[in-house]
Specification:
Blueprint lengths: L2 H34 L10 H17 L4 H22 L4
Helix pairs in contact: 2-3
Length: 93
């Protein structure tokens, strides 16, 4: 693989990163809406829901032939980041 090819591929990755950022922005807006409907801080972490999300991601990853270890780590990290975000932005009613 030539250096030129690597540069082209990296540019494609950069464009994809921009798309991902837009998706994360949209996800944050939905999380904000969910957070507004939570009455207590203890409602922020829903272990049952997290377990279901991770099971679904694993299943969908296998179906789409994506290494489930990659997607699992990404989702665990994203869930943790959004939980921290919710704790920082929780407003007592």
């Amino acid at each position: 693989m030539t250096n030129n090819n690597i540069i082209k591929l990296r540019k494609k990755l950069d464009k994809l990163d921009d798309v991902l950022l837009n998706i994360i922005k949209k996800r944050t807006l939905y999380v904000d809406q969910v957070l507004k409907n939570k009455k207590f801080k203890k409602n922020i972490v829903d272990k049952k829901r997290i377990k279901i999300i991770l099971q679904n991601i694993k299943k969908k990853s296998k179906k789409k032939k994506i290494d489930p270890k990659i997607t699992s780590r990404i989702w665990i990290s994203m869930i943790k980041a959004f939980i921290e975000y919710e704790y920082r932005n929780f407003k007592k009613k």
